[in-house]
UniProtKB/TrEMBL annotation:
Catalytic activity: uridine + phosphate = alpha-D-ribose 1-phosphate + uracil
Enzyme class: transferase
EC number: 2.4.2.3
Domain Nucleoside phosphorylase: residue ranges: 29-275
SUPFAM superfamilies reported in the protein's UniProt record: Purine and uridine phosphorylases (SSF53167)
Annotated InterPro entries: Nucleoside_phosphorylase_d, Nucleoside_phosphorylase_sf
CDD domains: UP_TbUP-like (cd00436)
Source organism phylogeny: Bacteria, Pseudomonadati, Bacteroidota, Flavobacteriia, Flavobacteriales
Descriptive protein name: Uridine phosphorylase
Length: 290
């Protein structure tokens, strides 16, 4: 039995941080970072059956063209992803009354819709990126046993190419779900490696008043290649989503609207339009493919 200190439930029986019960979520889930973006997606739904929010975790479940979908905000960073995916998995794969894992496990389909900055000059603002791999620079996933799901050869190649300081922890690489990749794939998508940082400023090479450990890291990442895969963009969630989903048996895919290009120093003139177009595209694919 899983102890109450390990799987914390609220007095109403919902999981602690997300404030959700099993019946509140669909098996197809869209992640967004910003809580205000949840309704930018659910405004297209035919109906909404459930809505709740606790802290930065806002959830709405409803119907879009006969498809039941949950949209959830995760907030920022790998630490929040650790909370969200573990608690979602508990909702479908642990009996919350007996506190025992279920014999028959359920796989969720998780698609992240986010915004990001491109590291490559030829991936312009307002384009879309599909993350073939998540490259975790954050070290969160190293708390788990990940060798069976990680791409160790790519990890080692990245460490060598960047002269990575292992005092920061060894980066990890996890592939996306092939099932969701095939479902969402189109000519509109750039593909590559999405790097996931544990912070926004120093961990992503931004310098304000503090010097950083490796001021050349971004330029090293720009020209890293492994088996024709290059690093396309840098953000704060994808690798953690891929890693925990792979370990727990869920399907995960990360899609980003590119609103900035770090190589050219440009920013989208209308970032909201790019995000709205990615939302419409993803909903259409979800509704038509099942």
């Amino acid at each position: 039995m899983i102890q109450s200190s390990e799987l914390i439930l609220n007095p109403d029986g919902s999981v602690y941080h997300l404030n959700l019960k099993p019946e509140h979520i669909a098996h197809d889930i869209i992640f967004v970072g910003d809580q205000n973006r949840v309704e930018k997606i659910t405004q297209f739904f035919d109906s909404i059956e459930f809505s709740t929010q606790k802290r930065e975790f806002k959830t709405q479940t409803g119907i879009f063209k006969d498809k039941r979908i949950t949209v959830m905000s995760t907030g920022i960073g790998p630490d929040n992803i650790d909370i969200v995916i573990n608690e979602l998995d508990a909702l479908v794969n642990i009996d919350l009354e007996t506190r025992q894992p279920k014999e028959k496990l359920t796989s969720l389909n998780i698609i992240r819709i986010g915004t990001s900055g491109s590291l490559q000059a030829d991936i312009p603002v307002d384009s879309f990126v599909m993350s073939k791999f998540g490259l975790g620079l954050d070290n969160m996933l190293r708390s788990y046993l990940i060798d069976e799901v990680s791409n160790i050869k790519m990890e080692d190649a990245f460490v060598k190419h960047t002269s990575w300081d292992l005092r920061k922890g060894k980066p990890y690489v996890i592939a996306c779900s092939e099932k969701l990749e095939k479902m969402i794939e189109s000519d509109k998508m750039h593909k590559g490696i999405t790097a996931t940082a544990g912070g926004f400023y120093g961990p992503q090479g931004r310098v304000l008043r503090l010097n950083i450990q490796d001021e050349d890291l971004n330029s090293k990442m720009d020209n890293f290649k492994f088996e024709d895969n290059r690093i396309t963009n840098l953000e704060m969630e994808t690798a953690a989503i891929y890693g925990l989903s792979a370990l727990l048996g869920h399907n995960a895919l990360s899609l980003n609207a590119i609103i900035a290009n770090r190589a050219s120093g440009t920013f989208s003139e209308d970032p909201y339009k790019a995000v709205d177009e990615l939302i419409a595209y993803t909903l259409k694919k979800l509704a038509n493919q099942y």
